[in-house]
Amino acid sequence: MSQARQQQLEIEDEIGPSNLEKSKKSKVNLGSDFSDDEDQSSDDGEPVEDVYYENINIDEDDERALQMFMSKDAAPMRTLADIIMEKLTEKKTEIETQFSDAGTIQLQDLDPRVKAMYEGVRDVLAKYRSGKLPKAFKLVPTLKNWEQILYITDPTKWSAAAMYQGTRIFASNLKDKMAQRFYNLVLLPRIRDDLAEYKKLNFHLYQALRKALYKPAGFMKGILLPLLESGTCTLREATIIGSVIANNSIPILHSSAAILKIAEMDYTGANSIFLRIFLDKKYALPYRVVDGVVFHFLR
Question: H helices within the chain, ranges in order?
Answer without folding.
Answer: 2-15, 17-25, 60-68, 80-90, 112-127, 135-138, 146-152, 160-173, 176-182, 188-198, 203-212, 216-219, 225-229, 235-246, 252-264, 269-280, 287-298
